[in-house]
Give the backbone structure.
Amino acid sequence: MRTIFESMEHAAAIGIGGHVRPDGDCVGSCLALCYYLKKKYPNKKVDVYLEYVQDEFLFLPNSSLVKQTIDGSEKPVYDLFFALDSGDLDRLGFSEPLFHNAGRTVNIDHHITNQGFADINFIKPEASSTCEVLMDLLERDLLDTDLATCLYLGMIHDTGVFKHSNTTRHTMELAAVLISYDVPFSKIIDETFYQKTYLQNQILGRCLLESFMVLEGKCVVSYVKKETMDFYGAGSKDLDGVVDQLRVTKGVEVAILIHETGPLVHKVSMRSNHDVDVSAVAKQYGGGGHVKAAGCTVYGTIYDVINNITVHIEEQLKKLDTLRS
Amino acid sequence: MRTIFESMEHAAAIGIGGHVRPDGDCVGSCLALCYYLKKKYPNKKVDVYLEYVQDEFLFLPNSSLVKQTIDGSEKPVYDLFFALDSGDLDRLGFSEPLFHNAGRTVNIDHHITNQGFADINFIKPEASSTCEVLMDLLERDLLDTDLATCLYLGMIHDTGVFKHSNTTRHTMELAAVLISYDVPFSKIIDETFYQKTYLQNQILGRCLLESFMVLEGKCVVSYVKKETMDFYGAGSKDLDGVVDQLRVTKGVEVAILIHETGPLVHKVSMRSNHDVDVSAVAKQYGGGGHVKAAGCTVYGTIYDVINNITVHIEEQLKKLDTLRS
């Protein structure tokens, strides 16, 4: 990194781009790097490009300066352009042309699939988050509350507040350093991670009440009709977290949330607590995901969907029983 | 601590007691110390006394050996007795006589109110948890997965998984060391912290659906009737976490959950997100608690309770507005 920062001394204009549909780690890392560069080089131009910044992240420094489009008809040319948290170039979305136009490019990421598409690449698949990779690159003596807040936010969003298996001793040690800079961590966790609108809590309530257990208590299923979502004026995003609340039901191996999005069209989200591979089920319906979190679209009545999906889950459970016995 | 461990060399029988209604930090610290002592001194007798061990903590080492009563008519006499996580002697409950009978006593705690009632006292009010105090006292080279698991469990329960303001840089650093011993932290967080029974999720769903906003969206209120709880065969414990889910509603300063426990009798739980002092409201009804979490019992119809409590909340909000302006 020292080399980048040395070569940066000569860059007058620096651009930073994150991935489409930016999440906490993407926004956190982009704004952390922006803040750091502005602090270290007050006279340079530093621009951040993100599709949007969620309301709950607007308290972060420089969030109001984020560019959601490319100004003017001529694309700006940056001496240096950073792609952050983006597994491949496509993920940059509307800022990809700026990457191609730039004098020199840097790629900072933690996705194992990242092939290293820039002039300089810092890819650490063992890191919990891009914020973790970034923190190891930055000069520690420039840390302050604002910078630490951006980095901390990214780490908690990609680790589920130090819960997911990507959390390591090193992650926790870095977070320890960060909170020592008076990061308002209780507030950040509550307001960016757990906060729900009244409406989202209503929908969560509906989904919990509609839930039922199948496969001898090993699978919990819930569904929400289009008319319910329309009644609340809610979108898919308002269902975030619902399947995770179902997943933590005692005794459950798999949680399924079925969302009717149109006539005989259902979006199915699945979560697995242990060894059931829900992506194998999703793939049968043209969907995808990971072993523990996957999704697909299934056509038919709600009864068809429940029957078809749970049959596949039952097969997976039986396979596991055979393996375990 | 070295002195205790030196004096312990001569103790043949060691007792450990936690507080009544033991929580994660209490169970975690008692079983951590028990495990440590058994590992360090395999020939000594080490007994742990706890009122009960919750099902979700039964995976901890030695949990099945915990004594929930005192054996026989003659009280055993321990050479050394540890009181853990107990702010005062009364908190020990049924094991208090064992403390009085012991040759020497040790008090390890993090409650600021702890006056130091034992022969040897280790009280660190700045620590997040008794597990944190304990970890700083133990010899690190005896750490292994089982010991680390007990200590980690206590820390996450008292810090709300590193969220509450008692979490410090030191807490995070200790947790970093612990997870490096292959503590199954994802599983522990899910299964001891977030897990709910199907029934508890049903009740949560009911309470979310019944909730409504008052005081211009600054206060969310919900209630659950006795007949609903009876229908589900649920007890007060099944309402754990409900008021916290209400509290994270966007825009809300105060969350209130009203639980009808008998004819015209209501238990009121209140949580505050910022500066409203809910304990001031609880005290007016003979209840108590802290600034951000308090409770009381209020008599009258549900309408009386809602009206009376929210009037007090409104007063608190007005006071804050005056202070802030």
